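Morning run. Coffee first, then this:
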Amino acid sequence: MTDANRSPEKIHYICQTYVVTKAGRTGQTGLKIAKQFEYSTASEATSRAEREALSEDCTGADAYMVTEDPTSGEVGDPSFLVRLGNVPELADF
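And here it is:
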């Protein structure tokens, strides 16, 4: 297959919010994903993350983009547009 016949990568723009999990047996709290929204532009995902981060029930919010190879379904690493509040470490993502 030549490069001309390859499907272009598909870009996904995501807003993802987090909440604190209750302390377990270890007494440590953590973060879990609360909501996830997909948008067609980076600015829409960023705006939603900014709004969500202001919400009382939101601990933190990320807006990021990932590319997907439509042929294989493989998704690349996230490229963060904005990270607000209490969010997971990059290594945990």
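The chain is about 15% helix and 40% strand. Good start to the day.
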